[in-house]
Design brief:
The chain is α/β, with parallel strands linked by helices and about 425 residues long. The protein is built from 16 helices and 15 strands. The chain has helices at about 10-20, 35-50, 60-65, 80-90, 105-115, 130-140, 165, 175, 185-195, 210-215, 305-315, 320-325, 330-350, 360-365, 375-380, 400-410, and strands spanning about 5-10, 25-35, 55, 70-75, 95, 120-125, 150-155, 200-205, 225-230, 235-240, 250-255, 260-265, 270-275, 285-290, 355. It folds into 2 domains: about 5-125, Rossmann fold (3-Layer(aba) Sandwich); about 130-295 and about 330-385, Dihydrodipicolinate Reductase, domain 2 (2-Layer Sandwich), CATH 3.30.360.10. It is globular, with a radius of gyration of 21 Å.
Length: about 425
């Protein structure tokens, strides 16, 4: 078995993948790239401490020329797809961090790059591999609660305290300019993963631009909700981002024709299951703490889920069929992401429902081939819409706000 030569683009989030790659015998970390030298040096030191000779790059074009079989994309979340397309076309396998794409155009281009290259694209939606949603997936696929009728996914993460350290006081940082429903795959993704169902329609809703986030530089709605219809008629409520709640909430509920499964909102790690018998409202309820799928995942970040993203990617490249089954391919990755893109279009259009296309079908792609609607001006071009498009009366955020956030970042202070 030959080693897979892997590069990591993005040293901050990529440190997790660096750590995973350094522990594998069938993969070799050969290069790391990041424009921010302190983060790059820190990741390089991790490799050096393991006796690895890894080349460090501050420029992607130089990194791109390095001899690599596969690349992990851990760069800015709104910039994954263009790099993935380039790398796939150059003959490299790709694992992409969250999110898949920023526009419908990018979704089409990404799918076609995978199809044309024949290379592996694996989506690192790690929340699918957290112990509770992974257990839900196994039990749903086993038929324990029957076919899905309703579901809820919740990713509530008040990032206000860490905002300086993740936006650096940059006015145009993607976190400051993203739509309220852009970051939807932590909440929606595990439900689609567990059930194997595809979204077909979406309506979006958002909160006001709350002052506690506005004073940190965020321009759009502070949190967003998607109401998604799946191909079997089931309804999903997906809610995301910076609402006031501690500890932050990662919560999933699946209601089926013969029972339900719910993660516990307050007791972390507990799964509640109701299985109905032949008589209505009669059955068995249980609650338990599922065992992790692999004990080696302990301590690897995000409840151990970071272990599985890299594992399944490398194992899939090496030809392991079980890892291919558990990995998230480009079609499901796009399904997880584009309801957020179309959901914001819904918000801008008065919460009107939007059709979610099945981009597996080539005939459905042409309608979106040139669709660059998004909140990132450098990506959207003439289809740019600001993240506060549904709240147009807000005054622009003054430069002094970003200057203060940058000062806090440099001083190591919280938001």
């Amino acid at each position: 078995m030959s080693k897979v030569k892997v590069g990591v683009f993005g040293a901050h989030r990529g440190r997790t993948m660096v750590g995973q790659l350094l522990g594998r015998e069938d993969a070799e970390l050969v290069a790391i790239c990041d424009k921010y030298r302190p983060a790059l040096d820190q990741a390089g030191k991790m490799a050096e401490d393991k006796g690895m000779n890894v080349t460090l790059y501050e420029n992607f074009e130089d990194f791109f020329q390095h001899d690599m079989d596969a690349v992990v994309l851990a760069n800015y979340a709104n910039e994954h797809a263009p790099y993935a397309v380039r790398l796939l076309k150059s003959g490299r396998h790709v694992m992409s961090e969250v999110l898949t794409c920023s526009t419908m155009k990018e979704a089409v281009e990404l799918i076609e790059a995978v199809e044309e290259s024949g290379k592996i694209y694996d989506y690192a939606e790690n929340y699918c591999y957290m112990t509770i949603p992974f257990e839900m997936m196994h039990r749903y696929q086993r038929g324990d609660i029957g076919e899905l009728t309703q579901a809820e996914g919740e990713y509530i993460h008040d990032c206000s305290s860490i905002w300086p350290g993740i936006t650096y006081g940059e006015r145009n940082h993607w976190r400051n300019t993203m739509s309220s429903v852009f970051y939807c795959t932590h909440s929606l993704g595990p439900i689609l993963y567990a059930t194997g169902l595809r979204p077909v329609r979406v309506s979006g809703f958002e909160t006001r631009n709350m002052e506690y986030m506005r004073k940190l530089g965020q321009t759009g709605g502070t949190a967003g909700t998607l109401i998604v219809t799946l191909e079997n008629g089931a309804i999903v409520k997906s809610i995301d981002m910076s609402l006031r709640r501690q500890p932050h909430s990662v919560n999933y509920q699946l209601y089926g024709e013969r029972g339900s499964m719910e993660s516990d909102r307050w007791k972390s790690g507990v799964l509640h299951v109701w299985q109905e018998g032949p008589l209505n409202c009669k059955g068995e309820s249980s609650e338990y703490v599922p065992e992790p799928a692999d004990k080696r995942a302990a301590g690897t970040g995000h409840g151990g889920s970071d272990y599985f993203t890299t594992k399944y990617f490398i194992d899939w490249i090496q030809g392991d069929e079980l890892s291919k089954k558990y990995a998230i391919d480009v079609y499901q990755a796009v399904d997880m992401c584009i309801p957020g893109i179309l959901g914001f279009r819904s918000i801008v259009n008065g919460n009107a429902p939007m059709v979610v296309p099945n981009l597996r079908n080539k005939e459905e792609r042409d309608l979106y081939r040139y669709d660059t609607f998004c909140t990132f001006p450098e990506i959207a071009g003439p289809m740019y819409v600001p993240s506060n498009a549904a709240q147009p009366n807000k005054e622009p955020i003054p430069d002094s706000v970003y200057e203060e956030v940058r000062r806090k970042w440099l001083a190591g202070e919280q938001g």
